[in-house]
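Lab notebook page, bench 4
Experiment: in silico fold of construct C2
Operator: M.H.
Input chain length: 237 residues
Purpose: comparison with the prior construct
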Amino acid sequence: MLKLVLLVILALLAEQRSQALEENTEEHLFPPIHPNCTQSLTELLLLRQEAQLNRMSAAEEATTQVLKETLQTLVQVRDSLNALRNTAQGHTPTSEAVVECVSPFTRVGERCLLLALNKMHTWASARHFCAAYGADLAHFSDINEYVAVLGYINTINELKKSVSIWIGGSDEVEEDNWVWVTGELMPRGSPFWGTKDGYRPQPSDGRSQNCAVLWQPDQYYIHDVSCTYKSAPLCQM
């Protein structure tokens, strides 16, 4: 009986020793996680994520800047191509609206003109004729406009009728101070004004001739004539 008790006690002690050895083995293979380890790993992951986001943000800013510069370059190229096209087509850039002319007026450059070649009037009567269309006698300020007017006149007067043409200039208010009906000063000298008898420059006839006409015998250069002379009105809208 005593031997049996001793055997049971020895078996229990052996079992307890075996369990203690197993626990020591597990602790050796799987040491406990330090409380700060998890926190350090989280912080590392956050730092890596933040660095990646910073790189992505920098790359996005660089891409945006490149796109802006590319857009500016394309706009400049477009404007240059438009300018070249306008030049090739004989157009000049303008901020003004395109002039629309109503019949019987014809567009000539940036103006609307009407030459009533078969209507003979005095200078004052010619202004009334034009006023009935909401217009006045024509005027021009530079050589390009003058040339355009002459081109239009020669087109209308293709049969070369001996008809001079009224324009809206006079010195009635003040002698030798030639102004347009708009109040602007008229251009003087060549190539606008012609000559009388081949050598006397116009205007040349003083107080007796105070109205401006495109003189047909002198290839439509400007001459001063009596305001009661009968000529065809050139109206400008």
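Observations: Residues 61 and 122 are 75 Å apart (CA to CA). The helical segments are 2-29, 35-88, 123-131, 143-156.
Next step: discuss at group meeting.
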